[in-house]
Amino acid sequence: STPSAESSTSSEAAAAPSEPLPEVGQFVMVELNEGYKMGVVKYVGSTEFAPGDWIGVALDDKKGNHDGTVKGKCYFKCKPKCGVFVKMDKIIKGPALAGSASSSRAT
Fold it and tell me: Does the predicted TM-score (pTM) go above 0.90?
């Protein structure tokens, strides 16, 4: 194998080499300028506004930039100013809260 072939693919893999992308519906924490915000993954994949894989998150607070529509294309739906698109390195995956029996013990 040639060393040049390895370096051409390393830039893509550097974003998240072993970390799988979150699933739609998963609760996550998103790193924003003003700290971490809780949200739900609504979109995972490529977009027309920038290359690479993006995670679209509907935030609990109005700390986002849009309602899931960017440059006229609707990627997901959420409340106005609650949607953000981030790269994987800005995501902290939360527990699978939906349908998890272990999370209902706090009663």
Answer: no
